[in-house]
Design goal:
Elements lengths: L67 E2 L2 E2 L5 H12 L8 H7 L2 H6 L2 H14 L4 E8 L3 E7 L7 E8 L7 E9 L13 H8 L5 E9 L5 E7 L5 E2 L5 H13 L8 E3 L19 E3 H10 L3 H11 L1 H10 L14 H9 L3 H8 L3 H12 L14 H5 L3 E2 L1 H12 L6 H10 L14 E9 L8 E9 L6 E8 L7 H15 L4
Antiparallel strand pairs: 1-2, 3-4, 4-5, 5-6, 7-8, 7-15, 9-12, 10-11, 13-14, 14-15
Helix pairs in contact: 5-16, 6-8, 6-9, 6-14, 6-15, 7-8, 7-15
């Protein structure tokens, strides 16, 4: 059943090429837990010559996105928060959960596979294991999903790894609830003594086409390397491409063409494969800020296509070029989820390759005449595995660092920056990250042909303390034949993150 305490936290992916949406899974045992062209306008807030230098924008203090008050994380209002507050009350020692309470808080779809008495028994077992449970490390929080480490106050590991989800609309009933054991680290013992250079070298052995950047963002938003392993070489990014969609949204807000509070209705034409919001009623209104948070925090694919359509491809393409990528043509015209998936599934390989290798003018015409008329992707007669690495969104670690720098340099305190900060900080991929930094941003992703391991597995963190240049850790793993082990990658990147947190 879905609430089995022994079940791993699963990487949330697609039925076709998988895109990890949120934290990578973790493995139990001695190592990590088993859980988952155009005319381009350059805007002043992206141009070093016309903007304040990055150093001038240091903050003397950075308010935490999720403040700790009395040992409790203060979560923003959302269906997830409301239902977690009820569930946390049920986990207090001496409480008894009733059938009426379960029926009032759990969605019928959950109860169809997890009957009331089984759900009660599971809540009882979690209460027994973690009495008076509270969140000790918040990994991700969006309006409809949350992952966190929970434990009894003062209790040492092992702790509980909570995976929790609700509907967005209506009363936001619970649709996802799991707890597994977490021993306190995502690293295998063999990786815990690696130096930064050794960890970087090991990362490069974990896929056939890797690229890694550990660096800092300094004055004028310039990215400099601390560790560079093929960091200027473009690789398939998977869902990291959504960083540029967010940048386009921020630009539209700055220009006054969009507001974080504007609502976008859920429409059938934008239902993308793997979207967590696909089961919400059509016409459900989503504020732009929520779409951005869903897109980045759990990499929701339908939220991505809704926002992509609302912002507009031309605005997003302009942000790609202005953000400082070395070769904008690798990303533009920037495809949405369904558009990209049509290249995987809907055309024969020569036709898809004609798009991938075509000029920008050809690609724009092909989009308009061939891809867009197909609407949302629901699979197709083909599956071109080679395109996962060689025919999808591509950028280098330095390109991604430049995009992070561009987002960070949006006007301080503005609605645009608040939207970016909330979205980029919604998830940090794994435990032991958020608490190390005043500001932690993350985006990652994956694509898989369905065999063992991944063909594309990517991670990108932006890590900042007040009055200091931010760090980035950007780790891109590509393998045309597949077989990338997410647990090995997670362990080594976990060690890199640990070491970066110790740098002066």
């Amino acid at each position: 059943m879905g609430c089995d305490t022994g079940a791993p936290f699963r990487a949330m992916g697609l039925a076709w090429p998988r895109m990890i949406r949120g934290p990578v899974a973790h493995r139990h045992g001695a190592g990590p837990m088993k859980r988952i062209a155009l005319a381009l306008a350059l805007w002043p807030w992206l141009l070093p010559a016309q903007a304040q230098t990055f150093a001038d924008q240091f903050e003397s203090t950075i308010a935490p996105q999720f403040p700790l008050v009395g040992g409790q994380f203060q979560l923003p209002p959302s269906p997830t928060t409301t239902q977690w507050q009820w569930l946390q009350g049920e986990l207090q020692a001496g409480q008894t959960t009733t059938a009426a309470e379960v029926n009032a808080h759990f969605d019928p779809a959950w109860l169809a596979t997890n009957p009331v008495q089984q759900t009660i028994a599971f809540i009882d077992s979690v209460r027994t294991s973690y009495p008076n449970a509270r969140i000790t490390d918040l990994v991700a929080h969006t309006p409809n999903r949350m992952t966190a480490v929970i434990d009894s106050p003062g209790s040492p590991p092992p702790s509980g790894y909570l995976v929790f989800g609700t509907r967005y609309a209506g009363t936001g009933l619970i649709v996802q609830f799991g707890v597994s054991s977490f021993g306190g680290s995502v690293m295998y013992p063999v990786d815990t003594t690696l130096t930064l250079a050794q960890a970087a070298d090991k990362f490069m052995t974990l896929s056939s086409a890797p690229a890694l950047l550990v660096g800092r963002i300094g004055a004028n938003g310039q990215c400099t390397a601390i560790v560079d392993r093929s960091a200027a070489v473009p690789r398939a990014t998977a869902s990291i491409f959504k960083t540029w969609v967010l940048g386009g949204a921020a630009r539209a807000i700055v220009d006054g063409n969009l507001s974080a509070t504007d609502t976008v209705p859920l429409v059938a034409s934008e239902l993308a494969p793997g979207g967590t919001i696909n089961n919400e009623p059509l016409n459900t209104p989503f504020p732009v800020a929520d779409l951005a948070t869903l897109m980045m925090g759990i990499s929701d694919n339908t939220a991505t296509d809704l926002l992509h359509e609302r912002v507009g491809r031309s605005v997003i393409n302009n942000f790609v070029a202005a953000s400082g990528v070395a070769d904008p043509n690798l990303l533009t015209p920037l495809l949405g989820i369904s558009e990209q998936f049509h290249l995987f599934y809907s055309f024969d390989l020569p036709t898809s390759l004609s798009y991938v290798n075509g000029s920008e003018a050809f690609q724009n015409n092909f989009l308009t005449t061939q891809i867009v008329p197909l609407g949302p992707s629901n699979g197709g007669p083909y599956f071109h595995v080679s395109l996962l690495t060689d025919g999808s969104w591509r950028a280098s670690p330095f390109d991604i660092c430049a995009a992070f720098a561009a987002l960070r340099r949006s006007p301080g305190g503005s609605e645009a920056f608040k939207t970016v900060d909330r979205a980029m900080g919604a998830g940090v991929a794994q435990p032991n990250v958020r608490g190390q930094w005043d500001r932690a941003w993350y985006k990652g992703g994956s694509l898989s042909s369905g065999g063992a391991g991944f063909n594309v597995l990517t991670h990108a963190w932006f890590l900042e303390d007040a009055e200091r240049d931010p760090f980035v850790v950007i780790a891109l793993s590509n393998a045309s034949a597949g077989g990338i082990d997410q647990f090995f990658v997670q362990s080594v990147t976990g060690r890199i993150l640990q070491l970066v947190a110790q740098l002066p």
